[in-house]
Amino acid sequence: MMNAKKITLLSGDGIGPEVSKEGEKLLTVIESRFDYKFEIVKKDFGGIAIDKHGLPLPEDTLNACKKSDAVLLAAIGGPKYDTLPRAKRPETGLLSLRAGLNTFANLRPIMLFDPLLDSSTIKREILSGTDLIVVRELTGGLYFGKPKGIEVRNGEKVGFNTMIYTESEIKRIANVAFEIAGKRKKKITSIDKANVLDVSQLWRDVVIEVSKDYKDVTLEHLYIDNAAMQLIKNPGQFDVILAENLFGDILSDEGAMLTGSIGMLPSASTGDGSLPSIYEPVHGSAPDIAGKNLANPIAMILSIAMMFKYSFNDKKVYDTILKSVKSILNEGYRTKDIAQDKCKLVGTIEMGDLICNQISATNLRLSPNN
Ligand code: IPM
Ligand code: MG
After folding, report:
1. Please, where in the chain does CATH 3.40.718.10 lie?
2. Which residue has the CA at smallest separation from atom 8 of ligand 1?
3. 120-259 — its CATH code?
4. 8 A C-beta contact, residue 252 and residue 280
5. Cβ(25)–Cβ(76) below 8 Å
6. Ligand 1: does its nearest atom lie under 6 Å from the Cβ of 94?
7. Share of the chain above pLDDT 90, in %
8. How far apart are CA 212 and CA 193, in angstroms?
9. pLDDT tens digits, residue range 294-347?
10. Is the pTM higher than 0.70?
């Protein structure tokens, strides 16, 4: 049976449009190899939406996202927008999109590919065996808490944000992490700063409560500062890292460096299933390399793989994409961010072509559902 899927594509800014093109190419190849028909709806989001419509998340864009089966988002932002009032910045649009689709769970797998073990700044021996996923709370905490602002008090400016979590917000993200851990190595490391912060004490108490429903999963707690150290000291000790919004933001960038480049890291932002999920490379818009055919499209390609796994429940396409990326890396092809001595250096377009050709060349038409 033909699977018709509507995907809203938000190419955004900087290298966003370039990596999106490679994503579209991949979807076309998947259509030709598997029983899918994609309707790709392109909408303005981020800086480009500010330029054209005066705001980062136009209503029409959010509505299109809500009506799709999944949202594919490349990257947003750039120096041009950094001086705008906060409400008009691309990043505020991203937070509104996450809130608008209620994607409270951000999944950031730190996948290591063997051929890239020497691309990381961390020694090969320390990396070996690393396979972890950061489960980051995405619609609460310091990013959204009120009160917030900058105002004048006693004759001087003060700036403030609030890290706030309700019990139910902690419970629902903890449940996601425990479910994922149950299907992996069955270990959760919950990150907090319970030695100092009240909100972290509640986080820890609620996570312990939730853990009682998952007897087969081991739960550990680490303070955020220690976790940041452990992640580069001994990354192999982690399976699922569960963290609030800002702590997860920081740890996922740190974790990205284990893989060799942030250009390798995909993500999925999901909610309770009533609205579509967002698939997005973890890297930013990298304005310094935009338009130069230098960006690594692999994070985008792996984000699409995650879309098949989580939104379309299709492990086969997920595995096919992953295998193809692995084999191209095994053959020595590298974009500049992951380049090594004696590698075959290629640009964005060539890397996309190589991975797509690999998928076309694989003989998979014989699936029982075809
Ligand atoms: C991320 C990014 C965003 C965040 C920015 C662009 C708002 O760093 O997705 O990790 O802080 O969440
Ligand atoms: Mg970040």
Report:
1. 1-104+275-370, 120-259
2. 249
3. 3.40.718.10
4. no
5. no
6. yes
7. 92
8. 22
9. 999 999 999 999 999 999 999 999 999 999 999 999 999 999 999 988 999 999
10. yes
Residue nearest atom 7 in ligand 1 by C-alpha distance: 91
Residue-level pLDDT at 370: 37
At residue 325, what are phi and psi to the nearest 5 degrees? -60, -45
* Spatial separation of the C-alpha atoms in residues 285 and 189, rounded to whole Å: 30
Write down the pLDDT at residue 368.
43
Which atom of ligand 1 approaches the CA of 138 most closely? 12
Q: Half-sphere exposure (CA, 13 Å, Cβ side) for 286?
A: 22
CA of 67 to the centre of ligand 1 (A): 24
The alpha carbon of 216 and the centre of ligand 1 are apart by a number of angstroms equal to 33
- Pocket of ligand 1 contains residue 265 by CB under 6 Å: no
The answer, yes or no, to whether any atom of ligand 1 lies below 6 A from the CB of 249, is yes
Active-site residue list: 143, 193, 225, 249, 253
1-104+275-370 architecture in CATH?
3-Layer(aba) Sandwich (3.40)
Q: Is the beta carbon of 91 within 6 A of some atom in ligand 1?
A: yes
